[in-house]
Amino acid sequence: MATTALAPPPISAPAPLRGDTERESSYLQYLPAIYREDGFLRRFLLIFEDILGPLQRLVDNLPYYCDPATAPSSFLPWLATWVDMDLGHRLSTAQQRELVQAAAYLHRQRGTRAGLKRYVKICTGVEPLVIENSSGLRLGPDARLGWNACLGRPLPYTIAITLPCQNPDAIDTAMVETVTADYKPAHIGYTLKVVQRRDGTTAME
After folding, report:
1. Using CA atoms, how far apart are residues 41 and 105, in angstroms rounded to an integer?
2. Which secondary-structure segment (H or E) carries 177?
3. Strands 129-134 and 154-165, bridge-based pairing
4. Which of 16, 38, 60 delimits the end of a domain?
5. Which whole-number Å values give the CA distances from 112 to 47, 75, 176, in the listed order?
6. Closest by Cα among 191, 198, 142, 146 to 167
7. Whole-model pTM?
8. Which of 15, 34, 60 is the last residue of a domain?
9. Residue 173 in domain
10. pLDDT digits 0-9 by tens, 36-50
11. Mean pLDDT, residues 160-178
């Protein structure tokens, strides 16, 4: 009985990747002109360019990763460790950026009223009023009639912090207390009061 041999099916060439038929590696510019006409070499170098390209772009953009104004939000906690700042509080991304940017100033002003006011304002969005050595109104740059004016008594080695804001419930007092305890002079105590600031009203200085 005669048998008929069947020819194997033809093997078609693999289809080129869409979009890669016209691509040329930018690495060709570093080779002699004679190699730029080699079609295989043009495609072969794309392998290395696709692997190394993202790494090269990362290195080129490294200064933006080190700038708190342009760094990705996930990068900010790591940047904060460079300047010894704590981002463990519930802060927005904008607040985190501002805190890292102000780190040098805050470290220089640590233990001063200016440093404490700046830190609290970054964390709360409200500029605090800080009175020294008194629980009531004392003439000075942070005396405000209607906000921190009351009959008080001398409180040596104590600062009275008042936060005038439109929504007192939105203030994280635990965070303010943590910041105050960390940035006030070590030998003094403090009091904290959050008062409501109504729209359209201003305090008399």
Report:
1. 55
2. helix 173-183
3. antiparallel
4. 60
5. 58, 30, 16
6. 198
7. 0.64
8. 60
9. yes
10. 888 888 888 998 989
11. 90
